[in-house]
Specification:
This protein is mainly alpha-helical. It has a single domain, classed as Glycosyltransferase, CATH 1.50.10. The chain is 46% helix and 6% strand. The chain has a 3-stranded antiparallel beta sheet with strand order 2-3-4. Strand 6 and strand 7 form a beta hairpin. The chain starts with 8 loop residues before the first helix and ends in a 15-residue tail after the last helix.
């Protein structure tokens, strides 16, 4: 590939569309029924049957070998729908429809109703059944098909699944009950675990049965489930769905500290508090017509979560976001959940840009100047950086920085954001788009959905639609990583 010194937006857009078509071509063959695998050869449209070693912060228990993971692919599919409309490419829409219609009709009929997707589960393309990321213990396959959202499922995806199979969406919402546990003791206190079994109809525990997972009631996961329930309540107006929504929402509201912060793994976490707050804003937007009073109550409480997030010892202008809080700094457990900074490791904590994007998402709901300022300060810190020269650079972390620049440009119109974005895009094109399919990591010769290459496709397409000519509107932002 020739050396690139300036960005060509139309060439970048062509590269994005080429990647989408590469994936859909795989899905159209070998009996995949529109689904495309998580591990793919970069040059030819074929599933990768060898399993490369983990890289960076990757864990083997989060991968989807020989399978497909809709949670990973949702950004890719959303982009296919948008570019199909904006660029008059109907084949992209057909490809996304083929994937989702098959998944909704044939991959969701599990004993619990929960879908085989997310952090530890997927759909096995070889055996055509729910697969476990703990693939190295096949005799425990059913026990280790574990449900965990991993990131938010946006409203457009629930709408599409509802279009193809509304019953599976309702069963999924009912299946969220499997996350609840009754703790031992006379009071029978209810708690929830972010994990649940997909295939086995029993409460999740590390050793199965009635083992409890105290401390795994992560606030951000409660936010994911609230959006899921809000969608079904909006469609059905069922009283039991409303009751589920209220129970999930009240659970953490009753567990705030005096600053309004929420607990995760034994410490107060401003970032998880923000995540739940933004998810509540999304959820109340979904139910405001079905239940205006309920929506108004939880929208007001969501703003209190946003207030609590800002009490953390953050310094966005220096690229610093803390995920641990204490009134006594000597007691902060920084080793448990470190301060977020611009990072390029692909690990579970994510880069600081994740929080900047959530602040932009909250600003779009509320118009709050303090959150807008926080996000812009963080974006400005990123603007002073260059992509590291390291051979191994994860698409996900780069994508979130690009999405931060895209929001900053869209919301301010300032030319400096265009210049920063174009400077980064030159490097991104050279290092991620030198093959027929976008790279998930630079320096690695395969595509893997777990590292969110679809998010990089969205980030590049969004910037091209904002900076270049020919678009009736920009590609929508993405705030699902929270």
């Amino acid at each position: 590939m020739p050396t690139l010194s300036t960005v060509d937006h139309s060439r970048l857009l062509d590269a994005v569309i080429r990647s989408l078509r590469h994936l859909f071509k795989i899905g159209s063959g070998r009996g995949y029924h529109g689904l495309f695998p998580s591990l793919v050869d970069l040059d030819k449209p074929a599933m990768l049957y060898g399993i490369p070693p983990c890289v960076g912060g990757q864990r083997s228990t989060e991968r989807s070998p020989f399978g497909v993971n809709l949670i990973h692919d949702q950004t890719t599919l959303r982009l296919a729908y948008e570019l199909g409309q904006l660029c008059d490419q109907p084949d992209l829409i057909r490809g996304a429809d083929a994937y989702l219609s098959y998944f909704a009709r044939y991959c969701t009929n599990t004993p619990t109703g929960l879908f085989p997707w997310g952090e530890h589960a997927f759909w096995d393309l070889v055996h055509r059944r729910p697969g476990a990321s703990h693939w190295h213990v096949p005799w425990l396959q059913d026990r280790f098909v574990v449900y965990d959202h991993q990131c938010q499922v946006p409203g457009w995806l629930w709408d599409k699944l509802w279009q193809f199979n509304p019953e599976c969406v309702i069963r999924h919402a009912e299946g969220l009950d499997w996350h609840w546990q009754v703790l031992p003791g006379p009071d029978g206190k209810r708690t929830f675990c972010r994990h649940a079994f997909v295939v086995e109809r029993q409460v999740y525990g590390p050793n199965g049965g009635d083992d409890t997972n105290i401390g795994y009631d992560f606030p951000r996961h409660a936010g994911f489930f609230l959006v899921d329930l809000a969608h079904v309540y909006r469609h059905t107006r069922r009283d039991d769905m409303r009751a589920r929504f209220v129970e999930w929402a009240e659970y953490h509201w009753q567990r705030r500290d005096r600053n309004g912060l929420l607990w995760m793994l034994g410490h107060l976490d401003p970032c998880c508090t923000l995540s739940l707050g933004v998810s509540l804003l999304d959820a109340t937007e979904l139910i405001k017509e079905a239940d205006p009073a309920l929506a108004a109550l939880w929208r007001e409480r969501a703003e209190r979560y946003l207030d609590a997030f800002l009490t953390g010892s953050h310094d966005p202008a220096a690229g610093r976001v803390t995920c641990d809080f204490s009134d006594d700094p000597t007691k902060m457990e920084a080793s448990r959940l470190p301060v977020l900074v611009p990072r390029w490791t692909g690990n579970a904590f994510g880069p600081a840009a994740t929080i900047g994007l959530l602040c932009f998402a909250a600003w779009r709901h509320t118009g709050r100047a303090d959150l807008r300022r926080f996000a812009l300060d963080l974006a400005q810190h990123y603007a002073g950086l260059d992509l590291p020269e390291a051979n191994s650079l994860p698409a996900r972390d780069v994508a979130q920085a690009l999405l931060l620049f895209a929001d900053a440009f869209e919301l301010t119109g300032e030319e400096r954001w265009r210049q920063v974005a174009d400077r980064w895009l030159v490097q991104v094109e050279k290092r991620f788009f030198d093959r027929p399919l976008v790279r998930a990591w630079t320096g690695l010769d395969y595509y893997e959905s777990h590292q969110s290459p679809g998010l990089l496709l969205i980030a590049v397409a969004r910037l091209v639609s904002l900076l270049g000519p020919g678009f009736s509107r920009p590609v929508s932002p993405d705030y699902t990583r929270r």
